[in-house]
Amino acid sequence: MFYAIVDCDNCYVSCERVFHPELKNKPVVVLSNNDGCVVARSKEAKQLGVKAGTPFFQLERLFPKQEIAVFSSNYELYGDMTARVMSIIRRHTDYFFRYSIDEAFCHLNEMRFSELKAWGERLHKEVERGTGIPVSIGIARTKTLAKAATWFAKHYAGYRHCCVIDTEEKREKALRVLPIDEVWGIGRRYAKKLQAMNLKTAADLTSYSEGWVQSMFNINMQRTWNELRGIDSVPDEKMTAKKSICVSRSLAEMTNDLNALRPHIANYAARCAEKLRRQQTAASVVSVFLYTNPFREDLQQTFDTREITLLTPTSDTARIVSAAKECLRKAFKHGYYYKKVGVVVTGIVAQNSLQTNFVDYDAAHFSKIKRLNQVVDKMNKLYGRETVTLAAQQYPKKQSFADAIRHEYRSKNPTTRWSDIIILK
DNA sequence: TCTGGGGTCCTAGGACCC
DNA sequence: TCTGGGGTCCTAGGACCC
């Protein structure tokens, strides 16, 4: 069996470019929420030396002479575009699962090199034709090697967007070229540690014994070591079922006002409930956290969190919002300026296997609430996200959830918003 | 002035129990 | 005077991913 990983190139930038073809071959970046820092860069922006995570306010100072196109992040657009990419991938394989917003792993049966290569090149073409988004494809016997293959597909045009590692010779050659810090599973910290020991490529790592790797690092590095040697060690299940759901934001402005935090927390809690329902699960623990701004060294710092365990797991918006509001009230401390706040739900179970607590359980009420939430989800899907909300989710001054954070350079939503689509007569 | 968001896993150490 | 030992559970912190 082979794994293929299909990865959208510079995903957010590619999504924006579909509707701005004039930006092809130009430096483009996409910013995080609040227009905080750079989260996606086009190839040209990378070549200019724009680093991931650069704060936006530094960009102009660092690149005064360059014309760089800048977009605020527009997750509605990226979600819709990548869903289209995924549906095309689905048609090309018997089994696949989404790994992140812009990546999917596929299982491929035993095929010869020429067939694997042709499969990848065909998929690339169809995704590009169907969505306008370029993808890179890596194929190998383990997920880590497939990831390595996509690195080659992206870095060498000769692979025509698809690199296959199907023999021992190719595996060994690839490892000798792949820099240690490009290995999937080795981040900045470990890369530094390995480089300090004079290990520079993936092959340098695999030349050491498993015992050495285990004693110097941990079980994760041992898995990576095995995967690089061609032994499948990262099971699919490890990467699918979600154990927690979190919705959080940095606020546009710090606040020490409990009332100002309430609508934020209510909205994040409501979004958690929606996510639970979408994946047909329920949660039994609701928690809220409040951070001050770590960059403001002149101010007192605090990290406050509270959680509540519900008698029965639920995905009901009203229930989760009210629990979150209670957490907020208990966690909040006067005299601190909070900057980042969020809601986390854990203790997640499948909705159809709900362990109900009989003290808390009323079948008729339960099914009413379930229907209510279904109707709300449907309306919000049809007419836009905040068509129906709880009063607690309302911001003063009729702001919407999306307006409550800064998005100065946001593109329109040509694929999902009625108002932006030309109506045919 | 301005510094993202959403996840997972492992490990060490403390609390607690018998 | 002398200060057990093993198991489990929880939490915080640190590492990783996109």
Provide a brief overview of the structure.
This protein is α+β, with helices and mostly antiparallel strands and 425 residues long. Helices cover 39% and strands 20% of the residues.
Task: Give keywords.
425 residues; alpha+beta; five-stranded mixed beta sheet; four-stranded antiparallel beta sheet; 12 strands; disordered C terminus; DNA-binding
Topology:
Elements: E1 2-8, H1 11-18, E2 28-31, E3 38-41, H2 43-48, H3 56-62, E4 69-71, H4 75-90, E5 95-100, E6 103-108, H5 113-131, E7 135-140, H6 143-155, E8 162-164, H7 168-177, H8 188-196, H9 202-206, H10 210-216, H11 219-228, E9 245-255, H12 258-278, E10 281-292, E11 303-314, H13 317-331, E12 338-350, H14 363-383
Helix pairs in contact: 1-4, 4-5, 12-13
The chain binds a DNA duplex (18 and 18 nucleotides) through helix 3, helix 8 and strand 9.
Describe this structure as you would to a colleague.
The protein has 14 helices and 12 strands. A 5-stranded mixed beta sheet has the order 5-6-1-7-8. A 4-stranded antiparallel beta sheet has the order 9-12-10-11. Strands 3-2-4 form a 3-stranded mixed beta sheet. The termini are far apart. With 425 residues, it is α+β, with helices and mostly antiparallel strands. Mean pLDDT is 88; it is low at 417-425. It has helices at residues 11-18, 43-48, 56-62, 75-90, 113-131, 143-155, 168-177, 188-196, 202-206, 210-216, 219-228, 258-278, 317-331, 363-383; strands at residues 2-8, 28-31, 38-41, 69-71, 95-100, 103-108, 135-140, 162-164, 245-255, 281-292, 303-314, 338-350. Helix 4 (75-90) packs across helix 5 (113-131). Strand 2 and strand 3 form a beta hairpin. The structure holds a DNA duplex (18 and 18 nucleotides).
